[in-house]
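REQUEST FORM: STRUCTURE PREDICTION
Request ID: SP-0412
Submitted by: Lab K.M.
Chain count: 1
Length (residues): 380
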Amino acid sequence: MDFLFTEEHKALREMVRGFARNEIAPLALKMDEDGDYPKELIGKMAQLGLMGITMPVEYGGAGMDPLSQVIAMEEISRASASISVVMAVNNGLVCEPIYHYGTEEQKRRYLVKLAKGEILGCYGLTEPGSGSDALALSTSVKKVSDGYIINGSKTFISNGFHSDIAIIFATFDKALGYKGITAFLVEKGRKGFLVGKKEKKMGLLGSDTAELIFDNCHIPAEDLLGKDGEGYKIALTTLDGGRIGIAAQSIGIAQACLDESIKYSKQRVAFGRHISDFQAIQWMIADMATEIEAARWLTYRAACMRGKGQEYAKEASMAKLYASEMVNRAAYKAVQIHGGYGYIKDYPVERYYRDARVTTLYEGTSEIQRLVIARELLKE
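STATUS: Completed
RESULT:
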């Protein structure tokens, strides 16, 4: 894949790889055990431009292309999938929609701080009764003389506990379908905006996932994102880009699985030989490496198409579908290669196995990706 890389891409990869290896990897196990991450780590990532990597320099970002974001996401995920979640949400689900749909005043007030890592954002679409079916969301909004009033709740919100600002989707009337859904920028600390329970998850334990509650929360008119009724469009276009990020995250976790499997197989002795000498182990390693490379091609292609301004919804879903399914196979093989030790928390593949599982669920399940791909193909 190096033929796609400019010298800047190569330099970025080496820089982020070194940072991830030296600053993130040594803390990965502790973050998993503590259920949180050190805030200064996000500050260091921001200094490297990783919290607003594709945002223009004038808005506090690094001014890089979508392929750069994929490269950085893979390397961060290789060290800690939990930290890559923080980065992915802030970049793809918060900075991007504000940049594309926000007013100039909103960009100056929020985007600059988000891209510089001075504040953290989250994305509130999922609800207890609406996940894949976004049209079923029940969070309501009504206009008042000086803005809007929101009531309802959001669930499974990554960065929800630590974030300073949330993009929230609400409907004026469920009977209007997608035409009633509208997006808002909601600052923490507003009266009626509460953070509910912090979820206890299977994996990604170092990142926070929380419930957000809105009880007659007043939103000033200037914090409308886009136009009334434009929320569904904002949600879907934002998720297209976010899916490329999840594909990159999946590749990073899978690469870590492969790295540890090769390392362990060369050390572990059974029947008087290193297990790397056995064909069964070699085949698993070969399959892992081949599938990882295939996922990279799909993901890099989607990122490059996005960077060129081409339609990429189908390619993003293909990348997300294949990479997320692939990482679960890779994690399974990594645990299998480690045998009983793969089931023990002293070995990182146990964490990779748990972290990998969610990739087929969030930002659109595998089933939703297949629907998107099929619909794009059938309308051609």
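NOTES: The chain has a mean pLDDT of 97.
Reviewed by: T.R.
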